[in-house]
Amino acid sequence: MAHDMAASALKKQHLIDPEICIRCNTCEATCPVGAVTHDDNNYVVDAEKCNFCLDCIAPCPTGSIDNWRVVEQAYSVDAQLGWNELPTQQELGEAAAGPSQAIDGEVERILESAHAGLGGKAVAPASAAKPTVNLYRRDRPAIATVQGNFRITAADTESDIHHIVLSFGSTVFPVLEGQSIGVVPPGANAQGKPHDIRLYSIASARDGEKRNANNVSLTIKRVEGGVASSYMCDLKVGDKVEVTGPYGATFLMPNDPEINIVMICTGTGSAPFRAFTERRRRAMPGASGKAIMFFGARSPQELPYFGPLQKVPNSLLEKHLVFSRIPGADKEYVQDRMRTEGKVVAALLASPQTHIFICGLKGMESGVDEAIADICRKSGLDWSRLKPEMRGQGRLHVETY
Ligand SMILES: Cc1cc2nc3c(=O)[nH]c(=O)nc-3n(C[C@H](O)[C@H](O)[C@H](O)COP(=O)(O)OP(=O)(O)OC[C@H]3O[C@@H](n4cnc5c(N)ncnc54)[C@H](O)[C@@H]3O)c2cc1C
Ligand code: SF4
Ligand code: SF4
Protein backbone atom coordinates (compact mmCIF):
# COMPACT_ATOMS: atom_id res chain seq x y z
CA MET A 1 0.00 0.00 0.00
CA ALA A 2 1.07 3.57 -0.64
CA HIS A 3 1.60 4.47 3.00
CA ASP A 4 3.83 1.45 3.56
CA MET A 5 6.03 2.51 0.66
CA ALA A 6 6.28 5.99 2.12
CA ALA A 7 7.02 4.56 5.54
CA SER A 8 9.78 2.25 4.36
CA ALA A 9 11.49 5.08 2.45
CA LEU A 10 11.73 7.24 5.57
CA LYS A 11 13.93 6.98 8.63
CA LYS A 12 14.02 8.84 11.89
CA GLN A 13 17.48 10.25 12.65
CA HIS A 14 18.80 11.28 16.04
CA LEU A 15 20.81 14.52 15.92
CA ILE A 16 22.53 16.95 18.29
CA ASP A 17 21.93 20.70 18.05
CA PRO A 18 25.42 22.24 17.70
CA GLU A 19 24.13 25.70 18.62
CA ILE A 20 23.06 24.67 22.13
CA CYS A 21 25.44 21.78 22.90
CA ILE A 22 28.08 22.71 25.49
CA ARG A 23 30.34 19.78 24.55
CA CYS A 24 30.22 18.29 28.04
CA ASN A 25 30.69 14.69 26.82
CA THR A 26 27.86 13.33 28.98
CA CYS A 27 26.06 11.76 26.03
CA GLU A 28 29.17 10.06 24.70
CA ALA A 29 29.90 8.67 28.16
CA THR A 30 26.29 7.50 28.54
CA CYS A 31 25.60 5.87 25.18
CA PRO A 32 25.77 2.08 25.66
CA VAL A 33 26.51 1.37 21.99
CA GLY A 34 29.12 4.03 21.23
CA ALA A 35 26.84 5.90 18.83
CA VAL A 36 27.97 9.36 20.02
CA THR A 37 31.29 10.66 18.84
CA HIS A 38 32.96 14.07 18.56
CA ASP A 39 35.76 16.14 17.10
CA ASP A 40 36.98 19.63 18.02
CA ASN A 41 33.87 21.11 16.47
CA ASN A 42 30.84 18.97 17.32
CA TYR A 43 29.28 16.09 19.19
CA VAL A 44 27.31 13.92 16.75
CA VAL A 45 25.26 10.71 16.62
CA ASP A 46 26.12 7.93 14.19
CA ALA A 47 22.85 6.85 12.54
CA GLU A 48 24.33 3.43 11.80
CA LYS A 49 24.83 2.73 15.49
CA CYS A 50 22.04 4.58 17.34
CA ASN A 51 19.28 2.18 18.41
CA PHE A 52 17.01 4.89 19.92
CA CYS A 53 17.41 3.57 23.47
CA LEU A 54 17.08 7.22 24.71
CA ASP A 55 19.55 6.66 27.58
CA CYS A 56 21.38 9.86 26.59
CA ILE A 57 18.32 12.16 26.64
CA ALA A 58 17.72 12.79 30.34
CA PRO A 59 21.40 13.29 31.34
CA CYS A 60 22.03 15.97 28.66
CA PRO A 61 22.07 19.30 30.56
CA THR A 62 21.01 21.43 27.57
CA GLY A 63 18.43 19.38 25.67
CA SER A 64 20.60 19.63 22.57
CA ILE A 65 20.74 15.83 22.32
CA ASP A 66 16.98 15.66 21.89
CA ASN A 67 16.66 16.46 18.19
CA TRP A 68 15.20 14.31 15.47
CA ARG A 69 14.65 14.55 11.74
CA VAL A 70 12.79 12.33 9.34
CA VAL A 71 15.09 11.61 6.43
CA GLU A 72 15.17 9.59 3.27
CA GLN A 73 18.94 9.21 3.63
CA ALA A 74 20.68 9.65 6.99
CA TYR A 75 23.15 12.52 7.48
CA SER A 76 26.65 11.04 7.75
CA VAL A 77 28.91 11.54 10.77
CA ASP A 78 31.26 13.64 8.62
CA ALA A 79 28.45 15.91 7.48
CA GLN A 80 27.29 16.45 11.07
CA LEU A 81 30.80 17.23 12.29
CA GLY A 82 30.84 20.18 9.89
CA TRP A 83 27.52 21.71 11.02
CA ASN A 84 27.15 25.03 12.82
CA GLU A 85 23.40 24.58 13.09
CA LEU A 86 20.86 21.82 12.59
CA PRO A 87 19.37 21.52 9.12
CA THR A 88 15.64 22.18 8.89
CA GLN A 89 13.34 19.25 8.24
CA GLN A 90 13.72 18.33 4.54
CA GLU A 91 10.73 18.26 2.22
CA LEU A 92 10.27 14.53 1.89
CA GLY A 93 9.71 13.03 -1.53
CA GLU A 94 6.86 10.58 -1.41
CA ALA A 95 5.32 11.40 1.93
CA ALA A 96 5.26 15.13 1.24
CA ALA A 97 4.28 14.93 -2.42
CA GLY A 98 0.82 15.23 -3.82
CA PRO A 99 -1.74 17.83 -4.84
CA SER A 100 -2.88 18.54 -1.30
CA GLN A 101 -1.49 22.01 -0.53
CA ALA A 102 -5.02 23.39 -0.32
CA ILE A 103 -5.93 20.91 2.39
CA ASP A 104 -2.84 21.76 4.40
CA GLY A 105 -3.79 25.42 3.97
CA GLU A 106 -7.15 24.56 5.50
CA VAL A 107 -5.44 22.90 8.47
CA GLU A 108 -3.17 25.93 8.87
CA ARG A 109 -6.24 28.16 9.04
CA ILE A 110 -7.80 25.95 11.72
CA LEU A 111 -4.57 26.18 13.71
CA GLU A 112 -4.22 29.92 13.25
CA SER A 113 -7.73 30.38 14.58
CA ALA A 114 -7.00 28.05 17.51
CA HIS A 115 -3.84 30.00 18.40
CA ALA A 116 -5.16 33.51 17.81
CA GLY A 117 -6.88 34.17 21.16
CA LEU A 118 -5.16 36.79 23.35
CA GLY A 119 -3.95 38.60 20.21
CA GLY A 120 -0.49 38.88 18.73
CA LYS A 121 1.36 36.38 16.61
CA ALA A 122 2.01 32.96 18.14
CA VAL A 123 5.74 32.33 18.66
CA ALA A 124 7.33 29.03 19.78
CA PRO A 125 9.13 28.87 23.15
CA ALA A 126 12.82 29.63 22.58
CA SER A 127 13.91 26.32 24.10
CA ALA A 128 11.37 24.10 22.29
CA ALA A 129 12.72 21.41 19.98
CA LYS A 130 12.14 22.05 16.29
CA PRO A 131 8.96 20.27 15.23
CA THR A 132 8.25 18.23 12.13
CA VAL A 133 5.01 19.33 10.47
CA ASN A 134 2.81 18.31 7.51
CA LEU A 135 4.59 15.00 6.99
CA TYR A 136 1.41 13.13 6.08
CA ARG A 137 -1.46 14.57 4.11
CA ARG A 138 -4.95 13.56 3.13
CA ASP A 139 -3.85 11.91 -0.12
CA ARG A 140 -0.95 10.16 1.61
CA PRO A 141 -2.03 9.62 5.19
CA ALA A 142 -0.22 7.54 7.76
CA ILE A 143 -2.32 4.54 8.69
CA ALA A 144 -2.53 4.08 12.44
CA THR A 145 -3.91 1.06 14.26
CA VAL A 146 -6.07 1.46 17.35
CA GLN A 147 -4.28 -0.07 20.35
CA GLY A 148 -6.72 1.06 23.01
CA ASN A 149 -9.93 3.05 23.39
CA PHE A 150 -11.61 3.53 26.74
CA ARG A 151 -13.87 6.03 28.39
CA ILE A 152 -12.18 8.10 31.09
CA THR A 153 -15.23 9.89 32.44
CA ALA A 154 -17.86 8.24 34.59
CA ALA A 155 -20.53 6.32 32.64
CA ASP A 156 -23.40 8.19 34.28
CA THR A 157 -22.20 11.66 33.19
CA GLU A 158 -22.94 13.68 30.04
CA SER A 159 -19.23 14.03 29.13
CA ASP A 160 -18.19 11.00 27.12
CA ILE A 161 -14.41 11.46 26.91
CA HIS A 162 -12.12 8.73 25.60
CA HIS A 163 -8.42 7.94 25.92
CA ILE A 164 -7.45 6.53 22.53
CA VAL A 165 -4.06 5.02 21.73
CA LEU A 166 -2.94 4.85 18.09
CA SER A 167 0.07 2.85 16.95
CA PHE A 168 2.03 3.85 13.86
CA GLY A 169 3.77 0.48 13.61
CA SER A 170 6.77 0.86 11.30
CA THR A 171 5.61 4.24 9.93
CA VAL A 172 7.76 7.17 11.06
CA PHE A 173 5.57 9.73 12.81
CA PRO A 174 7.70 12.10 14.93
CA VAL A 175 5.80 14.35 17.34
CA LEU A 176 6.49 16.87 20.07
CA GLU A 177 4.37 17.63 23.12
CA GLY A 178 1.82 20.32 22.19
CA GLN A 179 1.43 19.18 18.58
CA SER A 180 -1.76 17.79 17.08
CA ILE A 181 -2.57 15.13 14.53
CA GLY A 182 -5.26 15.24 11.87
CA VAL A 183 -7.91 12.55 11.54
CA VAL A 184 -9.64 11.92 8.22
CA PRO A 185 -13.09 10.55 9.04
CA PRO A 186 -14.21 7.97 6.47
CA GLY A 187 -17.17 8.68 4.21
CA ALA A 188 -18.56 11.90 2.79
CA ASN A 189 -20.52 14.91 3.99
CA ALA A 190 -24.05 15.87 2.94
CA GLN A 191 -22.65 17.46 -0.24
CA GLY A 192 -20.91 14.21 -1.18
CA LYS A 193 -17.46 15.69 -0.48
CA PRO A 194 -14.89 13.99 1.77
CA HIS A 195 -15.18 15.07 5.40
CA ASP A 196 -12.91 17.85 6.66
CA ILE A 197 -9.84 16.82 8.61
CA ARG A 198 -10.31 17.25 12.39
CA LEU A 199 -7.36 18.02 14.66
CA TYR A 200 -6.68 16.29 17.98
CA SER A 201 -3.97 17.21 20.49
CA ILE A 202 -1.41 14.57 21.30
CA ALA A 203 -1.74 13.52 24.94
CA SER A 204 1.47 11.49 25.13
CA ALA A 205 5.15 12.42 25.29
CA ARG A 206 7.33 12.53 22.16
CA ASP A 207 8.73 9.05 22.81
CA GLY A 208 5.28 7.49 22.85
CA GLU A 209 2.36 6.65 25.12
CA LYS A 210 4.52 3.67 25.95
CA ARG A 211 8.19 4.58 25.67
CA ASN A 212 9.67 3.80 22.27
CA ALA A 213 6.47 2.06 21.13
CA ASN A 214 5.87 4.50 18.24
CA ASN A 215 2.37 5.27 19.43
CA VAL A 216 0.42 8.36 20.52
CA SER A 217 -2.55 8.86 22.77
CA LEU A 218 -5.44 11.27 22.27
CA THR A 219 -8.15 12.60 24.59
CA ILE A 220 -11.37 12.92 22.60
CA LYS A 221 -14.77 14.13 23.70
CA ARG A 222 -17.78 12.78 21.84
CA VAL A 223 -19.64 15.78 20.45
CA GLU A 224 -23.39 15.28 19.96
CA GLY A 225 -23.85 14.70 16.21
CA GLY A 226 -20.08 15.14 15.67
CA VAL A 227 -18.63 13.27 12.69
CA ALA A 228 -15.02 12.75 13.74
CA SER A 229 -15.39 12.57 17.51
CA SER A 230 -18.14 9.92 17.23
CA TYR A 231 -16.03 7.97 14.72
CA MET A 232 -13.01 8.08 17.03
CA CYS A 233 -14.88 7.28 20.25
CA ASP A 234 -16.51 4.25 18.57
CA LEU A 235 -13.24 2.76 17.27
CA LYS A 236 -12.34 -0.78 18.28
CA VAL A 237 -8.89 -2.19 18.98
CA GLY A 238 -7.31 -3.19 15.65
CA ASP A 239 -9.27 -0.65 13.56
CA LYS A 240 -7.24 1.43 11.08
CA VAL A 241 -7.37 5.24 11.07
CA GLU A 242 -6.12 7.66 8.41
CA VAL A 243 -3.92 10.23 10.13
CA THR A 244 -2.36 13.44 8.79
CA GLY A 245 0.17 15.83 10.28
CA PRO A 246 1.79 16.25 12.67
CA TYR A 247 0.71 19.89 13.02
CA GLY A 248 1.68 22.84 15.18
CA ALA A 249 4.94 24.77 15.39
CA THR A 250 4.33 27.20 18.26
CA PHE A 251 2.25 25.62 21.06
CA LEU A 252 5.21 23.46 22.12
CA MET A 253 6.74 22.25 25.36
CA PRO A 254 9.79 24.27 26.48
CA ASN A 255 12.82 21.99 26.73
CA ASP A 256 14.58 24.02 29.42
CA PRO A 257 14.05 22.44 32.87
CA GLU A 258 14.40 25.86 34.54
CA ILE A 259 11.28 27.15 32.81
CA ASN A 260 8.10 27.52 34.90
CA ILE A 261 5.12 26.11 33.03
CA VAL A 262 1.64 27.37 33.93
CA MET A 263 -1.04 25.16 32.34
CA ILE A 264 -4.65 26.32 32.28
CA CYS A 265 -7.27 24.02 30.78
CA THR A 266 -10.77 22.67 30.67
CA GLY A 267 -11.93 19.25 29.46
CA THR A 268 -9.91 17.82 26.58
CA GLY A 269 -7.67 20.90 26.75
CA SER A 270 -5.79 18.81 29.30
CA ALA A 271 -4.43 16.55 26.52
CA PRO A 272 -1.26 18.52 25.71
CA PHE A 273 -0.62 19.07 29.41
CA ARG A 274 -0.71 15.34 30.04
CA ALA A 275 2.01 15.18 27.38
CA PHE A 276 4.02 18.03 28.99
CA THR A 277 3.81 16.41 32.42
CA GLU A 278 4.87 13.02 31.14
CA ARG A 279 7.77 14.63 29.28
CA ARG A 280 8.94 16.36 32.47
CA ARG A 281 8.60 13.11 34.41
CA ARG A 282 10.61 11.13 31.88
CA ALA A 283 13.25 13.59 30.69
CA MET A 284 13.58 16.22 33.45
CA PRO A 285 12.73 14.51 36.74
CA GLY A 286 14.70 17.03 38.79
CA ALA A 287 13.52 20.13 36.86
CA SER A 288 13.91 23.26 38.95
CA GLY A 289 11.16 25.06 37.01
CA LYS A 290 7.70 24.87 38.53
CA ALA A 291 4.87 23.10 36.69
CA ILE A 292 1.43 24.20 37.83
CA MET A 293 -1.97 23.29 36.42
CA PHE A 294 -5.39 24.90 36.75
CA PHE A 295 -7.86 22.36 35.39
CA GLY A 296 -11.61 22.89 35.34
CA ALA A 297 -14.48 20.44 34.83
CA ARG A 298 -18.06 20.16 36.00
CA SER A 299 -17.26 17.40 38.49
CA PRO A 300 -14.45 14.97 39.33
CA GLN A 301 -16.40 12.29 37.44
CA GLU A 302 -16.21 14.44 34.27
CA LEU A 303 -12.58 15.48 34.61
CA PRO A 304 -10.41 13.46 32.22
CA TYR A 305 -7.65 11.50 33.99
CA PHE A 306 -8.98 12.47 37.44
CA GLY A 307 -7.73 9.23 39.05
CA PRO A 308 -4.23 9.17 37.51
CA LEU A 309 -3.82 12.91 38.16
CA GLN A 310 -4.30 12.34 41.89
CA LYS A 311 -1.21 10.17 41.83
CA VAL A 312 1.06 12.75 40.14
CA PRO A 313 3.29 14.12 42.92
CA ASN A 314 3.09 17.85 43.65
CA SER A 315 6.85 18.10 43.18
CA LEU A 316 6.27 17.28 39.50
CA LEU A 317 2.98 19.11 39.04
CA GLU A 318 1.09 21.43 41.38
CA LYS A 319 -2.54 20.61 40.61
CA HIS A 320 -5.56 22.83 41.06
CA LEU A 321 -8.60 20.80 39.99
CA VAL A 322 -11.72 22.96 40.15
CA PHE A 323 -15.37 22.05 39.68
CA SER A 324 -18.40 24.03 38.61
CA ARG A 325 -21.24 21.58 39.28
CA ILE A 326 -20.80 19.98 42.66
CA PRO A 327 -24.21 19.76 44.39
CA GLY A 328 -24.29 22.07 47.41
CA ALA A 329 -20.96 23.74 46.59
CA ASP A 330 -20.26 27.12 44.99
CA LYS A 331 -19.36 27.00 41.31
CA GLU A 332 -15.64 27.36 40.82
CA TYR A 333 -13.96 27.98 37.45
CA VAL A 334 -10.25 27.98 36.63
CA GLN A 335 -10.11 31.78 36.72
CA ASP A 336 -11.58 31.74 40.26
CA ARG A 337 -8.85 29.43 41.51
CA MET A 338 -6.20 31.50 39.74
CA ARG A 339 -7.45 34.54 41.67
CA THR A 340 -7.40 32.55 44.94
CA GLU A 341 -3.80 31.59 44.15
CA GLY A 342 -3.11 35.16 43.02
CA LYS A 343 0.16 35.53 44.94
CA VAL A 344 1.62 32.36 43.43
CA VAL A 345 0.45 33.34 39.94
CA ALA A 346 1.80 36.90 40.33
CA ALA A 347 5.23 35.62 41.36
CA LEU A 348 5.27 33.38 38.30
CA LEU A 349 4.14 36.22 36.01
CA ALA A 350 6.97 38.39 37.32
CA SER A 351 9.55 35.80 36.27
CA PRO A 352 10.99 35.91 32.75
CA GLN A 353 11.35 32.11 33.11
CA THR A 354 7.56 31.62 33.06
CA HIS A 355 5.56 30.27 30.11
CA ILE A 356 1.74 30.24 30.18
CA PHE A 357 -0.31 27.75 28.15
CA ILE A 358 -4.11 27.92 27.86
CA CYS A 359 -6.02 25.08 26.18
CA GLY A 360 -9.66 24.10 25.91
CA LEU A 361 -12.91 25.54 24.66
CA LYS A 362 -12.90 28.96 23.01
CA GLY A 363 -15.12 30.38 25.76
CA MET A 364 -12.41 30.06 28.43
CA GLU A 365 -9.96 32.66 27.07
CA SER A 366 -11.68 35.85 28.20
CA GLY A 367 -12.24 34.70 31.81
CA VAL A 368 -8.61 33.64 32.16
CA ASP A 369 -7.39 36.85 30.52
CA GLU A 370 -9.44 38.96 32.96
CA ALA A 371 -8.23 36.95 35.96
CA ILE A 372 -4.58 37.44 34.97
CA ALA A 373 -5.23 41.17 34.44
CA ASP A 374 -6.73 41.38 37.96
CA ILE A 375 -3.83 39.48 39.51
CA CYS A 376 -1.39 41.82 37.75
CA ARG A 377 -3.24 44.93 38.97
CA LYS A 378 -3.03 43.72 42.56
CA SER A 379 0.68 43.00 42.34
CA GLY A 380 1.96 46.05 40.51
CA LEU A 381 2.29 44.36 37.10
CA ASP A 382 0.79 45.75 33.91
CA TRP A 383 -0.89 42.94 31.94
CA SER A 384 -1.56 45.21 28.94
CA ARG A 385 2.23 45.56 28.61
CA LEU A 386 3.26 42.11 29.81
CA LYS A 387 0.82 40.18 27.60
CA PRO A 388 2.22 41.29 24.20
CA GLU A 389 5.74 41.00 25.60
CA MET A 390 5.13 37.37 26.65
CA ARG A 391 3.39 36.60 23.34
CA GLY A 392 6.33 38.01 21.37
CA GLN A 393 8.82 36.06 23.45
CA GLY A 394 7.01 32.74 22.92
CA ARG A 395 5.95 32.65 26.60
CA LEU A 396 2.17 32.96 26.25
CA HIS A 397 0.29 30.33 24.28
CA VAL A 398 -3.33 29.61 23.61
CA GLU A 399 -4.98 26.74 21.79
CA THR A 400 -8.75 26.89 21.91
CA TYR A 401 -11.37 25.28 19.69
C1 LIG B 1 -5.69 22.50 17.47
C2 LIG B 1 -6.93 21.72 17.87
C3 LIG B 1 -6.80 20.71 18.80
C4 LIG B 1 -7.93 19.99 19.18
N1 LIG B 1 -7.77 19.01 20.12
C5 LIG B 1 -8.85 18.32 20.51
C6 LIG B 1 -8.71 17.30 21.51
O1 LIG B 1 -7.60 17.04 22.02
N2 LIG B 1 -9.81 16.61 21.87
C7 LIG B 1 -11.06 16.86 21.33
O2 LIG B 1 -12.02 16.19 21.70
N3 LIG B 1 -11.21 17.83 20.40
C8 LIG B 1 -10.15 18.54 19.97
N4 LIG B 1 -10.30 19.51 19.00
C9 LIG B 1 -11.64 19.68 18.39
C10 LIG B 1 -11.82 18.68 17.22
O3 LIG B 1 -10.92 19.00 16.18
C11 LIG B 1 -13.23 18.68 16.63
O4 LIG B 1 -13.57 19.99 16.29
C12 LIG B 1 -14.28 18.10 17.56
O5 LIG B 1 -13.97 16.75 17.90
C13 LIG B 1 -15.65 18.11 16.88
O6 LIG B 1 -15.53 17.44 15.64
P1 LIG B 1 -16.68 16.47 15.13
O7 LIG B 1 -16.30 16.05 13.76
O8 LIG B 1 -17.00 15.42 16.12
O9 LIG B 1 -17.92 17.44 15.09
P2 LIG B 1 -18.54 18.11 13.78
O10 LIG B 1 -19.08 17.08 12.87
O11 LIG B 1 -17.56 19.06 13.23
O12 LIG B 1 -19.75 18.88 14.42
C14 LIG B 1 -19.58 19.89 15.42
C15 LIG B 1 -20.95 20.36 15.87
O13 LIG B 1 -21.65 20.93 14.79
C16 LIG B 1 -22.88 20.26 14.62
N5 LIG B 1 -23.11 20.15 13.17
C17 LIG B 1 -22.35 19.46 12.28
N6 LIG B 1 -22.87 19.61 11.03
C18 LIG B 1 -23.97 20.38 11.17
C19 LIG B 1 -24.93 20.88 10.26
N7 LIG B 1 -24.87 20.63 8.95
N8 LIG B 1 -25.91 21.67 10.75
C20 LIG B 1 -25.98 21.95 12.07
N9 LIG B 1 -25.11 21.49 12.96
C21 LIG B 1 -24.13 20.73 12.53
C22 LIG B 1 -22.74 18.91 15.25
O14 LIG B 1 -23.97 18.38 15.69
C23 LIG B 1 -21.84 19.24 16.40
O15 LIG B 1 -22.57 19.72 17.49
C24 LIG B 1 -9.21 20.26 18.61
C25 LIG B 1 -9.31 21.28 17.67
C26 LIG B 1 -8.20 22.01 17.30
C27 LIG B 1 -8.34 23.10 16.29
S1 SF4 C 1 19.53 7.12 21.82
FE1 SF4 C 1 20.73 5.48 22.83
S2 SF4 C 1 21.93 4.60 21.13
FE2 SF4 C 1 21.18 6.61 20.41
S3 SF4 C 1 22.83 8.04 20.92
FE3 SF4 C 1 21.40 8.07 22.64
S4 SF4 C 1 22.21 6.59 24.12
FE4 SF4 C 1 23.21 6.19 22.13
S1 SF4 D 1 25.20 15.76 26.76
FE1 SF4 D 1 24.14 17.36 25.60
S2 SF4 D 1 25.33 19.23 25.94
FE2 SF4 D 1 26.64 17.50 26.57
S3 SF4 D 1 27.82 16.99 24.72
FE3 SF4 D 1 26.01 15.69 24.66
S4 SF4 D 1 24.52 16.86 23.45
FE4 SF4 D 1 26.12 18.29 24.06
Give your account of this protein's structure.
With 401 residues, the chain is of the alpha/beta class. The chain has three domains: 2-90, Alpha-Beta Plaits (2-Layer Sandwich), CATH 3.30.70.20; 94-247, Translation factors (Elongation Factor Tu (Ef-tu), domain 3), CATH 2.40.30; 260-400, Rossmann fold (3-Layer(aba) Sandwich), CATH 3.40.50.80. It has twelve helices and 15 strands. It has helices at residues 2-9, 26-30, 77-81, 93-96, 101-115, 227-233, 271-283, 306-311, 334-340, 342-349, 364-378, 383-392; strands at 11-15, 36-38, 43-45, 67-71, 142-151, 161-167, 180-183, 198-201, 215-221, 240-247, 260-266, 291-297, 318-323, 354-360, 396-400. A six-stranded antiparallel sheet has the order 8-7-10-5-6-9. Strands 13-12-11-14-15 form a five-stranded parallel sheet, sandwiched between helices. Strands 1-4 form a two-stranded antiparallel sheet. A hairpin with a 4-residue loop joins β2 and β3. α9 runs parallel beside α11. It is globular. The protein starts with a helix and ends with a strand. The relative contact order is 0.13. The chain binds flavin-adenine dinucleotide and iron/sulfur cluster (2 copies). Residues 14, 30-31, 33, 35-36, 45, 50-56 line the site of one iron/sulfur cluster.
